[in-house]
Automatic annotation (TrEMBL), chain B:
The chain crosses the membrane at residues 30-53, 90-110, 122-141, 168-193, 220-240, 276-294. It is a multi-pass membrane protein. It comes from Micromonospora coerulea. This is ABC transporter permease subunit. Residues 87-293 form the ABC transmembrane type-1 domain. Belongs to the binding-protein-dependent transport system permease family. CysTW subfamily. It is found in: Cell membrane. Keywords: Cell membrane, Membrane, Transmembrane, Transmembrane helix, Transport. Its main location: membrane. Residues 1-20 are annotated as: Disordered.
């Protein structure tokens, strides 16, 4: 059986200065990035950030205003969608309601003139664990099953790149988790480049090798999920991917291997390797789970830095307790304390000292005049299962 | 492989999209619209202009000798003076029929939309089903039902609702009944469509918030069904006021509506200027009523 | 007790009224069906006299009536084909394309539905007379296409607007060219709307009296034949035609709803018969 992927020249997917304007609105702004062949790549961003437009330009459903979409060294940006070795799993699936599952899955093969499809279709349905569902209509399948059909329908064509547009958005939480694992398994099995668009940071982190965080048509940061989480590049990333306590301060240069920072009357330091800049207005960032609460300054471990405050809110969420600590200058820091059985609950009103290991802190650029960004933007903490 | 075989490589052509695709797309909608729009222009819009012209012809001409275009505006007051009773009667009959149709159609639409459960589709088909037979055959069936020696007249005479010589056929009542009957489905269908969207939980919420069933109807159901009510009323009113089949088959010349007059002006008396003037008077009257009604109902967006 | 009875009434009176109104709607249909099996007495054609199948055995006893039925069917067929094609094209343009003059086109489509038939009939007649077009079969066809087009546009447009554009994008993504996408996805999905529009157009055309009456001269369609006969005496065969129309339409509706239901059931049965439930994840 001849398939497209095997004949086309192998290669990475590269976007070069890709721009899309809708009238005066710039949806995607001079975007350049390289997605290595065979990787699982996630485009992460809030709705309206341009991630779906980027995906549609790769698929050929949207024509770029300028720039290139390179597959290997071929520019495919101006090809019609049906001339590209790229397939899409659409948001809410777009299964053809008048065709049964077999014909849905076989659709791409038939359009390319392949007559004998039964064997391939069966193999694909087995891959997505839907054996025997061939004669059904899409409307008779559950959301999770429809999702698998959409996946099988795209994968059967052996595309060079598979695009997934919020593929799990319509599923409930439990099914979503299950499909995340399964998508990852299938990607490993078939070895095709997956480009996954999502607004769910947790989904992006669990599945992707590389995550690109998009904001306002541009990429804010690109890297492995852990690297981005542990050392975000911008305040946007620090708060979009998980939560962060960002204290407004001024960096006054390096001293030895540390960058010195003054903030709210206190003096702090951050390892130079974890500072995006060494001088000027900065955010001193600490993740809530890296912030520990003790009763007095005397209990702070050696080498840790600290600020004082009062507990104003304590939410017990099972695996952890989330505290809000109001500092002397009025900002509220959030701190997660794992519910490991060691140490008791701190009631609201308790004076506490919040401390952290400077090796867990990070320094980010800050617009002059911008204040602390410490109020959590998201309800769900990353890495801590509710 | 076919799909990839003719893929051009390189990136030289990225500056501007291929021109033919854009060009074809800009013209395509006009090509699609052209035949239909031309048909409507030539056979709907142009005839209206011709009718307007015909209404201003010199009334002393005839179809055989030809008409002179004299801008005879006087055709209008002349026609109105002669036939105003028929014009008024058209709207009176239609108005009464409309009230009757609302009294019957609202419970019917509401019952099907909200109370019928799994019988909903069957009942909905039943509303349309009578229209499957010919309009004229249905109206003739009413002629049978209302006839002097039919069972209905016999029954009504027996219970003295009708005098021994009382009749149903060839009365104004028969014409109104025929109008009500023939155009009722046009009223029910849009009404059903908007009542079907009504979430029954809203009525529960209303009764939870101390509304009696009557109040709940007045404050929730009725306002929410307004678009359907307005659309249905217009779909009933416009064809009914121009109808003359019911007046002809179920009434007597005393019950003639404006349609009968126009029909005979064009087809019997061959007085085109008069017929054209009456047609425009009818349309003007309908437009006036519709306009005032939409103003009152306050839902211009239905159209 | 009293209040419970009151509640029972309150819950059901609407349905009661609804059924009475349905009875009113069906009364003439029952009469038409009944009269189609009636042997009229010599004097009075309207009265129920004696059961007979004669009318059904010889529906064409009055042969000019059957000619009129055939003529109506011919006109209906041509008008349906033309108006369905024109209207479907317009619906596609309106739903799928942006263009200047959309408001004017919408107005042009809406107005024929809001204009009394009488006005359309008389205006078309004055055009034909002024242009010296001889009235007859083809002027009727022209008139019928004119008033059917708008209804076709509205019906197809509704179906098309309800269609998910992503289905077409998905087809293009799966190597279907523009034409293949139209042929394999768009057309099959819009087809029920087009069929519904065609049936509507045919029934509108077949049953039209007022507009036809002004533009037919001596050409007689079925409604016109009935109109003419109403002045003299109505042969019972008219009711045979009426009943047959009713039955055919009912059959069409019934068959389409049954087909939909059976397709759903058959598709459900297969995987059960195959006996292979989906494997769980390993």
């Amino acid at each position: 059986m001849r398939t497209m992927g095997h004949e086309a020249p192998a290669g990475d997917l590269r976007l070069a200065n890709l721009t899309k304007k809708f009238g005066v609105f710039t949806a995607v702004d001079d975007l350049s990035l390289t997605i290595p062949q065979g990787s699982f790549f996630a485009l992460l961003g809030a709705s309206g950030c341009g991630k779906t437009t980027t995906l549609r330009m790769i698929a050929g459903l949207e024509e770029p205003t300028s720039g290139q979409v390179l597959l290997g060294d071929r520019d495919i940006a101006r090809l019609r969608p049906y001339k590209r070795p790229v397939n899409t799993v659409f948001q809410s699936y777009a299964l053809f309601p008048h065709l049964d599952i077999t014909e849905n899955v076989a659709f791409g093969l038939r359009r390319r003139g392949i007559r004998k499809v039964a064997e391939q279709v069966d193999r694909m349905l087995a891959l997505v664990q839907l054996e025997g569902y061939g004669p059904r209509r899409p409307a008779q399948l559950s959301g999770g099953q429809q999702q698998r059909v959409a996946l099988a329908r795209a994968l059967i064509n052996h595309p060079q790149v598979l695009l997934l547009d919020e593929p799990l958005g319509a599923l409930d939480l439990k099914l979503r988790r299950q499909m995340q694992i399964e998508l990852k398994r299938i990607q490993t099995e078939v070895g095709i480049t997956f480009v996954h668009v999502t607004h769910d940071q947790e989904e992006a982190m669990t599945m992707a090798d590389t995550v690109a965080v998009m904001n306002a048509g541009k990429i804010e940061q690109l890297g492995a999920p852990a690297d981005i989480y542990e050392f975000p590049a911008t305040a946007f990333v620090a708060n979009f991917l998980g939560q962060s306590n960002l204290l407004a301060g001024e960096a006054s240069g390096t001293s030895g291997r540390d960058v010195l920072v003054s903030a709210h009357g206190g003096r702090f330091s951050v390892p130079a390797a974890r500072a995006r800049l060494a001088r000027g207005p900065v955010f001193l960032g600490v993740r809530p789970e890296k912030l520990h609460l003790v009763a007095t300054a005397a209990a702070v471990p050696a080498g840790h830095q600290h600020v004082g405050g009062v507990v104003t809110d304590a939410s017990y969420v099972g695996v952890s307790t989330q505290y809000l600590v109001k500092t002397a200058w009025g900002s509220e820091l959030s701190a997660f304390s794992a519910n490991s059985g060691l140490g008791g609950q701190l009631p609201v009103g308790t004076p506490v000292v919040a401390h952290w290991d400077p090796r867990h802190a990070f320094l980010l650029p800050r617009e002059p005049g911008e204040d602390d960004r410490t109020t959590p933007l998201l309800d769900e903490p990353v890495g801590v299962l509710p | 492989m076919t799909a990839l075989a003719h893929v051009p490589t390189g990136s030289g052509q990225s500056a501007s999209p291929p021109a033919p695709r854009r060009g074809r797309h800009r013209l395509l909608p006009y090509l699609l619209l052209l035949p239909g729009a031309a048909w409507l222009l030539i056979f709907f819009a142009v005839p209206l202009v011709q009718l307007a012209a015909a209404s201003l012809y010199d009334p002393s001409g005839s179809v055989t000798t030809g008409y002179a275009m004299t801008g005879a505006v006087g055709n209008y007051p002349a026609a109105l003076q002669e036939y105003w009773p028929q014009l008024v009667r058209s709207f009176v009959y239609t108005g009464i029929a409309l009230v009757l149709a609302l009294l019957m159609g609202y419970p019917l639409a509401y019952g099907i939309a909200q109370k019928a459960g799994r019988w909903k589709n069957l009942l909905l088909v039943s509303v349309v089903a009578p229209m499957f037979t010919s309009f004229l055959v249905r109206t003739l069936a009413w002629k049978t039902i209302l006839s002097d020696n039919g069972w209905l007249v016999g029954l009504l005479r027996d219970v003295h609702l009708l005098g021994p010589d009382g009749r149903l056929l060839a009365t104004a009542g028969a014409v109104v009944l025929g109008l009500t009957y023939n155009f009722l489905p046009f009223l029910v269908l849009p009404l059903y469509a908007s009542l079907e969207r009504l979430d029954p939980r809203m009525l529960e919420a209303a009764s939870d918030l101390y509304a009696s069933p009557l109040r709940a109807f007045q404050k929730v159901t009725l306002p929410l069904s307004m678009p359907g009510l307005v659309a249905g009323t217009l779909l009933f009113f416009i064809p009914a006021s121009g109808d003359y089949i019911n007046a002809e088959l179920l009434g007597t010349p005393r019950d003639n509506m404006i349609g009968n007059v126009i029909d005979s002006a064009f087809l019997v008396k061959l007085n085109y200027p008069q017929g054209a003037a009456l047609s425009f008077l009818l349309m003007a009257a309908i437009l006036a009523v519709v306009f005032v009604y939409l103003r009152k109902a306050g839902t211009e967006e239905v159209l | 007790m009293g209040s419970r009875f009151g509640r029972w009434i309150a819950d059901r009176w609407v349905m009661g009224v609804a059924l009475l109104v349905l009875g009113y709607l069906f009364l003439p249909i029952a009469v038409v069906i009944g009269l189609s099996f009636n042997r009229p007495s010599a004097r009075n054609t309207y009265d129920f006299n004696e059961f007979t199948l004669d009318n059904w055995r010889n529906p064409c006893a009055t042969s000019d009536m059957c000619d009129a039925v055939v003529r109506s069917a011919q006109i209906g067929f041509i008008a349906t084909v033309v108006s369905t094609v024109l209207g479907t094209l317009m619906a596609f343009a309106l739903v799928r394309h942006r263009f200047r003059g959309r408001a004017a086109i919408n107005m042009l489509i809406f107005l024929p539905m809001a204009t009394p038939e009488l006005v359309m009939g008389t205006s078309l007649l004055s055009l034909f007379v002024a242009a010296q077009v001889p009235l007859g079969f083809w002027t009727i066809v022209i008139a019928h296409v004119m008033f059917c087009v708008s209804f076709v546009v509205v019906t197809v447009k509704a179906r098309l607007a309800g269609m998910d554009r992503r289905l077409e994008e998905a087809a293009m993504d799966l190597y279907a060219s523009e034409w293949q996408t139209f042929r394999r996805i768009t057309l099959p999905l819009v087809l029920p709307g087009i069929v519904a529009a065609a049936l509507l157009a045919f029934s509108l055309s077949f049953d039209d009296f007022i507009i036809t009456n002004f533009n037919s001269a001596t050409t007689v369609t079925f409604p016109m034949w009935v109109w003419g006969a109403a002045g003299r005496s109505i042969p019972p065969q008219v009711n045979v035609i009426g009943t047959a129309m009713f039955a055919i339409a009912l059959l069409l509706v019934g068959a389409s709803s049954l087909r939909g239901r059976r397709a759903r059931r058959a598709a459900l049965a297969v995987p059960v018969a195959a006996g292979r439930p989906a494997k769980r994840l390993s």
